[in-house]
Design goal:
Layout: E1 23-35, E2 41-47, E3 50-56, E4 67-76, E5 91-102, H1 117-122, H2 124-127, H3 131-153, E6 157-158, E7 176-178, E8 186-188, H4 194-202, E9 207-215, E10 227-236, H5 240-259, E11 268-270, H6 271-278, E12 292-293, E13 310-316, H7 324-336, E14 343-349, E15 355-358, H8 367-376, E16 384-390, H9 392-407, E17 418-422, E18 427-430, E19 436-438, H10 451-456, E20 469-474, E21 477-484, H11 489-498, H12 503-517, E22 524-530, H13 531-539, H14 569-574
Parallel strand pairs: 6-9, 11-17
Antiparallel strand pairs: 1-2, 1-4, 2-3, 4-5, 7-8, 9-10, 10-22, 12-13, 13-16, 14-15, 14-16, 17-20, 18-19, 20-21, 21-22
Helix pairs in contact: 3-5, 3-13, 6-9, 11-12
């Protein structure tokens, strides 16, 4: 390192045997303190690069987490005292003079043992001193730098878009901000820069990107926070193939910057194939256990449980040893997910070596069904076969969740398994009132071969409309999504109409966009992926909170600043707001 060092000459973690005899000055926090008698103390001093042992030949009142500046000479540790667990374990700093820069009160949380998450977030500024958090946030910084480098190299220009916007339908609730200057009116905080980046394409900027802060008022979980950062990109005169290439290049470059190895080949499968094989539109392909269609095997079955439109199954390798309590737990989970139950069979072996099923439902099945089922599922002795019998969509979904429950490894294991999923449906469901629910935002271009279903159809026929949308999935996490955009006002109005947005409402909410399309909007497409999620995957963390400096809890609270909190009545009055009585 050759940057200005300030009060120090070296960082703690960069010292080694090659520095023997070099006078040094290090600064940091006392990580541990050990005394031997009245005139000898060992101080482990920590900064963001690591820890080094300092030997002080005098009485010194430097306790844990005191901020110190220590001057001394690097020397090899005496024989037999090296610490192989420490990167600097071969050496120590001797002949030390200690300057206490700041004393510290006793720590409210331990820094070397696990602690309740609420306490960690209450004292997040102390939690950040942990080696884990230091590592994670520096990984995140490398992610941001690599993304910018990759996008710049591909001709994208970084453009900032507004944080105070109009409310738009993006699939989640907006956070709204009251306007002081326009009483009774509200801004929304952006769920994404979607409309502005499309307008950048109308403006001829050709290739836009932004590391954008986005906000969505939706329930929090391991891979979701109220506010998050995403790489947002848009390009003109391109289609899905080019965007997939842009984003694959950027993600691969980022992975290599952090891990030293590029991402490797990224397969592409359709949404229908993902649902059929994995029961999920964000499949984790680090492990097998793919779904197998067994419907035809039960075409003439006498077993009533299998007299349904779809029977699909998975094979749990070695699952025959599974206890009944665990099977009951899985059955209950399948019922919570919407299935009527779970059919299961242990697989044994006959005298001639053929697989034999053992399960309560065997007495209702023919000999042919019992013989062909393990063959279809490629199940052998010691395995377990699990089936869901129901409507195809539900069978896929429940088996997909069961597959993850039984086979998914921790995020930190199994490497990275990326996958592009394409050809999503434009609408994912029809609600009780007959209105279609968009699978992506409503600015996604329908597949040209399916426009007739959109124009002339209605109801269930709308579910046949494919979109030109695509998702990037890694290890079962939806890293991001994108699509070819609608750039024709007539097609946009058709989509709005299908969603129940009439012409007057469309003009009120999106008139500026529809007007822009009339002034020469080029074909364009884009993508956005979650930087929090990518950083968590590369850090081997199961929860994105571990790669965010100051996250919210699962309930959306901030224990550090006590947000959210009340607002002074005078401030509410200034905004023209009044709270309803409790």
């Amino acid at each position: 390192m050759n940057e200005a060092r300030g009060l120090r000459t070296h960082y703690c973690g960069e010292l080694g045997a090659a520095d023997e005899g070099v006078p040094v000055v290090v600064c940091g926090w006392v990580d541990r303190r050990r005394t031997h008698g009245e005139h000898l103390a060992f101080l482990d001093v920590r900064d963001h690069t690591g820890v080094v042992q300092c030997v002080v030949d005098e009485r010194i009142d430097a306790r844990n987490e005191y901020v110190v500046r220590i001057a001394g000479v690097v020397r090899i540790r005496p024989e037999g005292t090296a610490n192989p667990a420490l990167a600097t374990g071969e050496i120590e700093i001797g002949d030390c003079g200690v300057e206490i820069l700041k004393r510290a009160e006793p720590m409210p949380i331990p820094l070397h043992t696990d602690v309740d998450e609420n306490l960690r977030l209450r004292y997040r500024y102390l939690d950040l001193r942990r080696a884990r958090m230091q590592r994670n946030l520096r990984i995140r910084a490398r992610v941001n730098a690599a993304i910018r480098q990759a996008m710049d190299a591909q001709g994208f220009v970084e453009i900032e878009t507004p944080m105070l916007v109009a409310s738009t339908p993006e699939g989640a609730r907006d956070f709204v901000v009251p306007s002081r200057l326009h009483p009774g009116s509200f801004y929304a905080l952006p769920q994404s820069p979607q409309l502005f980046k499309q307008l950048c394409m109308v403006g001829g900027l050709d290739r836009y990107y932004q590391i954008a802060r986005c906000l969505r008022d939706e329930d929090l979980r391991a891979d979701r926070q109220f506010e998050f950062m995403q790489l947002d990109a848009e390009a003109a005169f391109v289609g899905a193939e080019e965007v997939i290439d842009f984003i694959t290049t950027a993600v691969s470059h980022t992975v290599e910057a952090v891990t030293g190895s590029p991402l490797g080949e990224v397969p592409i499968i359709t949404w229908n194939e993902a649902m059929d094989r994995y029961g999920s539109d964000k499949p984790d392909t680090r492990f097998g256990m793919e779904l197998v269609d067994c419907t035809d095997l039960f075409a003439g079955t006498q077993a009533r449980v299998f007299q349904v439109p779809c029977v699909k199954g998975i094979t749990v390798t070695g699952g025959a040893e599974m206890g009944r309590n665990r099977i009951d737990e899985l059955t209950a989970a399948c019922k919570r997910w919407g299935a009527k139950g779970l059919a299961w069979f242990r697989v044994g072996e006959s005298e001639d070596g053929a697989p034999v099923l053992d399960g309560a439902l065997c007495k209702f099945m023919s000999a042919e069904e019992q013989a062909t089922l393990p063959q279809r599922l490629e199940a052998g002795a010691g395995d377990m076969v699990m089936l869901i019998a129901d409507e195809p969509r539900l069978a896929n979904r429940v088996l997909g969740l069961l597959r993850l429950e039984l086979g998914r490894p921790p995020v930190s294991e199994g490497g990275l398994a990326p996958l592009w999923v394409v050809d999503f449906p434009l609408f994912e469901d029809i609600d009780d009132e007959g209105n279609p629910q968009p699978a992506h935002h409503p600015f996604t271009m329908p597949h040209p071969d399916d426009l007739d279903y959109l124009v002339r159809g209605g109801g269930e026929s709308l579910l046949r409309v494919r979109s030109q949308a695509y998702d990037l999935v890694i290890n079962g996490w939806e890293l991001g999504s994108g699509s070819v955009r609608i750039h024709d006002a007539a097609i946009q109005m058709q989509v709005f109409a299908a969603l129940g947005i009439d012409e007057a409402e469309a003009e009120r909410r999106f008139g500026f966009l529809l007007e822009a399309f009339g002034y020469g909007a080029p074909p364009h497409a884009g993508f956005a992926f979650g930087i929090d999620r990518l950083a968590a995957l590369l850090a081997g963390e199961e929860n994105i909170r571990e790669v965010i400096a100051f996250p919210k809890t699962q309930s959306g609270a901030d224990p550090l600043t006590s947000a959210p909190g009340p607002v002074e009545p005078a401030h509410l009055a200034e905004l023209g707001l009044r709270l309803r009585p409790s």
